[in-house]
Amino acid sequence: MESLQLLLSGFAEAITPINLLMAAVGALIGTFVGVLPGLGPTSAIAILLPVTTVLEPTQGIIMLAGIYYGAMYGGSTTAILLNIPGEVSSVPTCLDGYPLAKKGRGGPALGITAIASFVAGTLGVIGLVSFAPLLADEALRFGPPEYFALMVLALTVMVSLSGDSIIKAFVMGAFGFGLAMIGLGPSSAMARFTYGSSNLTAGLEMTSIIIGLFAITEVLKGIEERRMRISVGNLGSVYPKANDLKRSAPAMFRGGVIGFFLGLLPGCSAAVTSFLAYDAEKRFSKTPEKFGKGAIEGVAAPEAANNATSSAGFIPLFALGIPSSPPLAILLAGLMIYGLTPGPVLFEQNSQFVWTLIASMFIGNIMLLILNLPLVWLWVKLTHIPYGIMAPIIFMFCTIGAYTVRNNLFDVLVALIFGVLGYIFHKYRWPVVPLILCFILGPLMEESFLQSMSMSAGDPRIFVERPISLAILLASAILLVISIKLVRRTNKRVKDETEHKFNVA
Amino acid sequence: MIKKIAADQIGGLISILMGIFCCMEAYRLHLLKGGGIVGDDTLPAIIGAVLIVLGSLLLFMRGRKQHAVQFPPKGVLLKMLLCMVFMFAQCLLIPLLGYLLSTLFVSWGLFRVIGGYAWLRSAIYAILLTAGLYLIFIKWLQITFPAGVFF
């Protein structure tokens, strides 16, 4: 009941003309960037994150929510219309979405996608309102050892982000930790890895690294691939027929349930759940032979799962500070720019702000549905903008974004260096998200580790002697095994499906 | 131009070097630390050790699958290199020429290189982009950028 009142006050804060405008602008530009071929939701949010930092915190965070949902939807649009999945989680959407588009039914497929995203996203946010404060209340009992164990749990996410080598993912994670250590040490404030540089003493700025690894790298990839305008055939009406809705509704429900509950597990990404939902839907279907040839349920189920997983991911993010997917890791960075550190005390210390954010997620979802269905034709037109025009614009946004966080050109330099590094990492298949994840979680982990060790006079057994800490560590070990199995299964499925059909950007 | 290279082994070597680097920094901090078991030197030492172990695994593990790395043709690679040169140049030019002029010049070059447009057309696009950035970020959002030494 208290949560409901707080949510209502969040709505009161969020529903002002300027904030609604920000939600609308966020949803529109999020979709715009997400629609650009090859730019997935993670890159889209990374490119647009700097734009929000120049706004008031409430407006900025509302715009960020709009961008998040817009970018997710934009990714699905390219998957359906162009057969280009921006992220691995969009591959199952391509399987039936693109055949539908080729039949001139791209419009209804996009309509179903928007509805499935809206339904699953809204259900997910309801789950967030119901569960996150409870989980956060429990987590308030945590001391430094439990926080440390929680950070270890968060690191199990790395397995699902590891790509083709878990060792490489862990090396990148350790590199991220190393980067986070640059600056003043948390215990004695001694300078580490600075070598007398005043710029390094302040530490590296997270936004610059994100802009470099995602946005600048993405532009370089675009130049390499010589991306151009791509023409799309006849879409048909974007409003699905009653029959489409009837066939899609159970698929949306099943996909949403699979996506939401599996999405609560930190090691379970949207890529895993969207494939599971697609496979489950095919198994449940009376006409499985239609899958892969343009079955509307084949679009509804993975899209619902994808969005439900994304929304469910907000629960561990807000309540425990664990980002379970790459876009959420970037969003976590966005929240930290505003001085918010997601975790158990977030609901206590920044109650108003958090509930405004949750309310703005509802608004972002609604904005997306209202704006995107009638504007599908516009997104299709935007895919026609030549890359030769888009790329310099994105480059200039990157400069501004990296500069504005601390008004320091050194941050722009860092972004450019990480842009080049990001391209090299991409070529040699070194996953960058573990780096970001550990860069974000590193300082929190170090702090809780040092505090725990001080409490126990240097005895590491403190982590296994306290029951909650031990339980979380055991859960991490179990999740690690489950994650490895699920990721192997998903990698196999992605390999099966992408061998001849797509290039996962 | 596909060629097989032992990229992961090189990555492993770099990881070991970074690990040694971390351990050296941890040792320096340890000497500076007054007392106590754990401190600012602890995590650099742990991370250093982890990097050395993981790097060694990549370097010495047999039977790892090597994938082919395909680089773009020389022309495209040159284009990418030029773009990054322009971007680094902008970083150097901003304190001298100020944000607006450096953005104008750099975006002119970027439109020319990436889009392959004629010089005049690229200049028009650059002027439009700079004007748009000026209106949004400087006029509307009131962000302060370096004005340059000549202004």
How would you describe what is shown here?
The complex is a heterodimer of chains A (505) and B (151). Chain A is an all-alpha fold and 505 residues long. Chain A has one domain (2-498). Chain A is built from 24 helices and 2 strands. Chain A has helices at 2-14, 17-35, 41-53, 57-82, 91-102, 106-139, 144-155, 157-160, 166-180, 198-201, 206-225, 242-263, 270-284, 297-312, 314-320, 326-337, 346-349, 351-372, 376-382, 387-404, 409-427, 433-455, 462-465, 467-498; strands at residues 183-184, 191-192. Chain A has a two-stranded antiparallel ribbon. In chain A, helix 6 packs parallel to helix 15, helix 11 packs across helix 21 and helix 12 runs parallel beside helix 14 (297-312). Chain A starts with a helix and ends in a 7-residue tail after the last helix. Residues 500-505 of chain A have low confidence and may be disordered. Chain B has 151 residues and is an all-alpha fold. Chain B has 2 domains: 2-70; 74-140, no CATH class. Chain B is built from 5 helices and 2 strands. A two-stranded antiparallel sheet of chain B has the order 1-2. In chain B, helix 3 runs antiparallel to helix 4 (99-115) and helix 4 crosses helix 5 (119-140).
Outline:
The complex is a heterodimer of chains A (about 500) and B (about 150). Chain A is mostly helical.
Oligomer: heterodimer
Strand order of the largest sheet of chain A: 1-2
Task: Describe the largest sheet of chain A.
Answer: 2 strands, antiparallel
**Outline type of chain B:** flat
Largest interface: A-B, 58 and 59 residues
Q: Please state how the strands of the largest beta sheet of chain B are arranged side by side.
A: 1-2
Determine the fraction of residues in helical runs of chain A and give it as a percent range.
over 70%
Briefly note the structural class of the backbone of chain B: mainly alpha
Radius of gyration of chain B: 24 Å
The total count of strands of chain A amounts to 2
Give the total of domains of chain B.
Answer: 2
Helix content of chain B: over 70%
Integer tally of domains of chain A: 1
